[in-house]
Structure to design on (644 residues):
């Protein structure tokens, strides 16, 4: 039927089969096999537009190959397969189906050759990621899912407005580098940044992801923000405003994660932080920077999913989700703990882990462009990542106090998924040359120069010292941190209440005036039309006839005169 | 469910040795700069012990900053429940 089989269709087919198959074992085979078939298909897609179509008279480029597209699609498929291994025995069938369709949306975006195709897959992602959130099954998940859906539909509308505007002004829907210089391009940029969780519209991420099921949040951590990074790479490379936005995201993530008590919400904030690094890189826009953003997205999906897996196992086994409720779990959960530690080291870009070989590419890009401030802020942020995720997550969950909890370690399938991703973190850290050839541009970068390694060791280990010295300040409390979503979760309600309070005297005066008018009307009507009123009382026939004659005379005169 | 806690990692003696070991590693990473020079990109980042101080004080600032921001935005975790 097709010269090239669209890779996303493998996942869509897998989702349909998963929905129909009742045997749990067979379903497990399908949810793991479909992403692997998808991965095979991804590597069959050559560069350039290979599949066209049409929709409402618009030509569509349904599949367009290219190195950066292939790289992102590859990691989406790997993530989908590993996530399926992690989840198949525990997630609801609806969640497995939705997760596959969500991944299909991500792969579809990766290969979309035009903005309309990208938009369609973008919305598929929004739709099925919402279902994944709802599969959390709690009232909190239901409410967070609704807020999540509203935010993504809003982002979709903004993106669509931009796409329509661009089509009208240029006549082209091609995905090509743009510059944010007019209304349409700004709308496209804002629509994408909403999915990248750029503040002020970032609260959807930390609101929804921790509300999903322990397995659902693993899928959620991977696709939405990283497709946004791919879209930025394809559409806005070198857009300088992204440097500032990215730096803001980096520090926003750190501060909020430092204040957070919910285990998975700490990781959610650190997604914003890590995506911030990638947004900075896209903003720098050089070949090294785009390589850095792509490589970091690849590595990030792996270590972030690993961290969410580790946290998910803890939530699943203990039923607790707050740092204040857990601790000391290293005793009975060694595999989960070690995998969590590897993920934490990778996110902190510790030497010999994937984060080191990818994040330092971004720093190198800042150095090459002479961006002194950016370089030092990213270095400070790297220390901050070690602080908020590298140590805080494993310390509060697996060590600190003894909570008395002695849960079992992860089930076998979850252990396999975690160990595979932990292995990948170390593999990319030790042999970055496995990843570098897949990057969009040729790489001439050597991360393991002794001086550079020593620089990062000093930076990170002394951040660790700061953590333990400041531990009394880091103790968690039963609190949440208000975000921009306060404006619509509480602010609007308060505004309405305040408006009502402010308008109360005016409304009361208006009410009394209306009441007075009504009273006047009633008493006048009673006077004229009451039992004794001129129009209400009974008249004698003679008097009535006299009035009729008089009125007829008036009418005849009037008719004659006029 | 609770068991008597006598894991070797939680014993005061172990923790003391962990501190000693940790501090030794920290000192080693700084002293190693005599042997392995750090080629700074912008001058200052090549100074002796710069990364150590930069990492430490960045974190102190961030923890302090988070504390200040927390005063403004922290609410009880039941805030949105009512």
């Amino acid at each position: 039927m097709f010269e090239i089989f669209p890779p996303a269709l493998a996942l869509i087919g897998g989702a349909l089969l998963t929905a129909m198959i009742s045997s749990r074992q067979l379903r497990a085979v399908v949810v793991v096999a479909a992403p692997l078939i998808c991965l095979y298909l991804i590597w069959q897609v050559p560069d350039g537009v290979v599949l066209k179509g049409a929709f409402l008279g618009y030509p569509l480029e349904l599949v367009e190959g290219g190195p950066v597209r292939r790289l992102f699609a590859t990691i989406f498929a790997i993530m989908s397969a590993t996530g399926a291994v992690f989840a198949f025995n525990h997630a609801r069938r609806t969640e497995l189906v939705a997760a596959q369709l969500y991944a299909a949306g991500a792969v579809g975006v990766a290969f979309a050759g035009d903005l309309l195709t990208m938009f369609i897959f973008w919305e598929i992602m929004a739709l099925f990621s919402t279902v994944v959130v709802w599969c959390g099954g709690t009232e909190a998940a239901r409410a967070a899912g609704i807020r999540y859906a509203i935010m993504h539909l809003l982002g979709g509308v903004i993106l669509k407005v931009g796409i329509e505007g661009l089509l009208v002004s240029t006549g082209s829907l091609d995905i090509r580098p743009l510059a944010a210089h007019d209304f349409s391009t700004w709308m496209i940029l804002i629509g994408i940044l909403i999915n990248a969780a750029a503040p002020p519209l970032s609260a959807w991420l930390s609101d929804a992801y921790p509300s999903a099921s322990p397995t659902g949040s693993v899928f959620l951590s991977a696709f939405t923000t990283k497709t946004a990074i791919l879209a930025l790479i394809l559409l806005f490379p070198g857009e300088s405003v992204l440097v500032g936005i990215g730096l803001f995201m980096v520090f926003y993530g750190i501060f909020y994660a430092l204040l957070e008590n919910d285990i998975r919400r700490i990781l959610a904030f650190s997604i914003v932080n890590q995506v911030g690094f990638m947004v900075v890189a896209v903003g720098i826009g050089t070949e090294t920077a785009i390589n850095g953003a792509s490589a970091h997205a690849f590595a990030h999906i792996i270590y972030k999913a690993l961290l969410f897996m580790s946290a998910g196992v803890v939530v699943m086994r203990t039923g607790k989700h707050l740092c204040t409720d857990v601790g000391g779990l290293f005793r009975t959960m060694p595999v989960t703990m070690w995998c969590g530690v590897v993920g934490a080291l990778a996110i902190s870009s510790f030497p010999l882990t994937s984060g080191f070989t990818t994040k330092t590419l971004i720093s190198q890009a800042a150095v090459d462009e002479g961006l002194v401030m950016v370089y030092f802020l990213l270095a400070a942020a790297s220390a901050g990542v070690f602080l908020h995720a590298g140590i805080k997550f494993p310390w509060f969950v697996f060590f600190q106090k003894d909570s008395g909890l002695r849960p079992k370690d992860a089930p076998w399938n979850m252990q396999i998924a975690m160990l595979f991703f932990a292995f990948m973190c170390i593999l990319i850290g030790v042999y970055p040359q496995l990843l570098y050839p897949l990057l969009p541009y040729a790489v001439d970068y050597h991360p393991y120069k002794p001086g550079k390694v020593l620089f990062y060791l000093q930076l990170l280990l002394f951040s660790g010292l700061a953590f333990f010295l400041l531990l009394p300040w880091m103790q968690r409390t039963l609190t949440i941190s208000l975000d921009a979503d306060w404006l619509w979760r509480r602010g609007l309600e308060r505004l309405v209440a305040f408006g009502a309070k402010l308008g109360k005297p005016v409304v009361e005066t208006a009410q009394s005036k209306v009441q007075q008018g009504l009273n006047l009307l009633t008493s006048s009507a009673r006077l004229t039309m009451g039992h004794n009123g001129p129009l209400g009382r009974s008249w004698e026939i003679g008097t009535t006839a006299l009035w009729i004659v008089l009125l007829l005379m008036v009418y005849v005169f009037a008719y004659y005169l006029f | 469910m609770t068991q008597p806690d006598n894991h070797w990692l939680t014993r005061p003696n172990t923790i003391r040795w962990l501190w000693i070991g940790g501090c030794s590693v920290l000192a080693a990473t700084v002293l190693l700069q005599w042997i392995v020079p750090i080629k700074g990109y912008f001058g200052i980042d090549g100074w002796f012990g710069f990364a150590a101080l930069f990492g430490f004080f960045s974190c102190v600032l961030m923890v302090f900053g988070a504390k200040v921001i927390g005063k403004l935005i922290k609410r009880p975790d039941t805030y949105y429940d009512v």
